[in-house]
């Protein structure tokens, strides 16, 4: 069993996730999501980590154009729009007991790659092209 501040962080992240699921509905605004998440994290005496966003997803596109800032700041701004039907979102909630700023512990070379949709690939084999 988890106790203490670790339990607070886990409960805060779960509650924020549940609230985000209820707020990301057709007809609601993108700007309406961050306020309740901040209020929930303050109740647990935790903070949301800066720079973490919830993105909409499309086929072959992980990070769509619409995004929700979980913790708005002066450095980052997103376009305010409405959630529409048949949109899919990847909800990212990261909570901290500290200041809410991410630390880089060891800088290693990244191994995550993303396909560029605007680049045309010419594959040699017919089966590969299919």
UniProtKB/TrEMBL annotation:
Signal peptide: none annotated. It comes from the Eukaryota. PANTHER family: PROLIFERATION-ASSOCIATED PROTEIN 2G4, PROTEASE FAMILY M24 METHIONYL AMINOPEPTIDASE, AMINOPEPTIDASE P. Belongs to the peptidase M24 family. This is Proliferation-associated protein 1. It comes from Ulva pertusa. The gene is crvDNA_42K.
């Amino acid at each position: 069993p988890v106790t203490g501040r670790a339990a607070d962080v886990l409960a805060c992240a779960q509650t924020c996730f549940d609230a985000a699921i209820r707020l990301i509905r057709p007809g609601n605004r993108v700007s309406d999501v961050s306020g309740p998440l901040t209020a929930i994290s303050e109740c647990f005496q935790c903070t949301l980590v800066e720079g973490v966003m919830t993105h909409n997803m499309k086929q072959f596109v992980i990070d769509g154009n619409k995004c929700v800032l979980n913790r708005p700041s002066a450095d980052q701004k997103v376009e305010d729009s409405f959630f529409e039907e048949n949109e899919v979102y990847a909800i990212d909630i990261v909570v901290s007991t500290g200041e809410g700023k991410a630390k880089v512990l060891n800088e290693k070379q990244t191994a995550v790659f993303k396909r560029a949709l605007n680049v045309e690939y010419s594959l040699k084999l017919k089966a590969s092209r299919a």
